[in-house]
Amino acid sequence: MKEEIKAYNNILDLIGNTPLISIAKIANTLPGNYFAKVEAFNPGHSSKDRIALYIIEEAERLGILKPGDTIIETTSGNTGFSVAMVSIIKGYDCILAVTSKSSKDKIEMLSAMGAKVYVCPANVSADDERSYYSVAKRLHEETKGSIYINQYFNQLNIEAHYRTTGPEIWEQTNGKITHLIACSGTGGTISGTAKFLKEQNPNVKVIGVDAYGSVLKKYHETKEFDTNEIYPYRIEGMGKNLIPTATDFDVIDKFVKVTDEESAHAAREIARTEGLFVGYTSGAALQAVKQLAEEGEFTSNSNVVIIFPDHGSRYMSKIYSDEWMSEQGFFDSVNVEDSQKIEF
Ligand code: PMP
Questions:
Q1: In the structure, what pLDDT confidence band is assigned to residue 336 with cuts at 50, 70 and 90?
Q2: For the domain bounded by 47-148, which CATH number is listed?
Q3: What is the tens place of the pLDDT at every residue in 124-145?
Q4: What are the transmembrane regions (predicted)?
Q5: What is the ipTM score, two decimals?
């Protein structure tokens, strides 16, 4: 009887194998063909499901983890959610150290997923014993049978994408991909995917998307860590104020920087043009493509794959809130009324 029922064993069976979707409508004025790898189709709604599953299963293979042990990470974002989800199914405790800057919604979402959340002060330096880094490190040292995911400095982050995202894109494009465009945060997605694709065809051009206010582009160009590049910006999940070892700068051909404002409008445009409700960094990736097209990067023979890392639902109080957009001044330079809201 059981054999006749077509059911997944659990939610983890649905991680990866995300669809590649043509975004021809939005790209209709650009030369070439454009496809989005839509990572919101992962069950935890982001690409981070891949690394959570891969890193935890690697620890199991090495015999470091047994049921009832503990997984620790320092994020209130997508990775935290994915780690909590994988921990539930595999029977681990999940501890997430986050800063007091994290929204109540995010903290409650992680609690809802069974994670124990430590809220640490945001306004202390990383080496302060109260910082979320220090708290996570201490908990890891004190907890026998625990692993610390440490996504910015874990090579398994790259490997997860080398083994999954890269081969999927190669197969989905039948080896015809010419360009990969991906936002870089930890750098795991772009580095692992690029490494696999370049092994198949060294001519695949890999372009990273960075934020104004982040050091990655300058570091790639000069190998210098320039603190003048660092200032606050609004896009969450990409760009960085340090150099992550989960980024392999050698497999990235170049970086493009995008603004908060243009990226926010681009995400809203993706939702309205393609019906794909995606997150802020998906908008950043599309904005980078527009800039690259203007620079003459693409031809009619280009097959461009753009990674859309997560789902729009996590940004309801930000880019999908007209109020927030207005507060940021993001509607000031828009001529047409952007909002479609009709109130009676
Ligand atoms: N977009 C979003 C929304 C993310 O959360 C992340 C991860 N920080 C990225 C893009 C970048 O992915 P990666 O960390 O693999 O570079």
A1: very low
A2: 3.40.50.1100
A3: 887 899 999 899 999 999 999 9
A4: none
A5: 0.99
Query: Residue ranges of the alpha helices (H) in 120-239?
Result: 132-142, 155-163, 165-172, 188-200, 216-222
- Give per-residue pLDDT as tens, 74-99: 987 899 999 999 999 999 999 999 98
Residue ID of nearest Cα to ligand 1 atom 11: 185
Residue nearest to atom 8 of ligand 1 (CA): 237
Of 36, 118, 77, the residue nearest 289 (C-alpha): 36
Span 150-191, pLDDT tens digits: 999 999 999 999 999 999 999 999 999 999 999 999 999 999
Kindly state the helix (H) or strand (E) to which residue 80 belongs, with its residue range.
Answer: helix 78-90
Residue 66 appears among annotated catalytic residues: no
The domain ranges of the chain are: 11-46+155-328, 47-148
Which position among 37, 48, 205, 257 bears the catalytic label? 48
- Report the alpha-carbon distance of residue 16 to residue 30 in Å, rounded: 29
Residue 251 main-chain phi, psi, to 5 deg? -95, 0
Query: Which protein residues are within 6 Å of ligand 1, measured from CB?
Result: 77-78, 183-190, 237-238, 279, 281, 309-310
Q: Which of 181, 183, 191 to mutate to test the pocket of ligand 1 (most atoms within 8 A of CB)?
A: 183
From 78, 181, 220, 238, the mutation candidate for ligand 1 (largest count of ligand atoms within 8 A of CB) is: 238
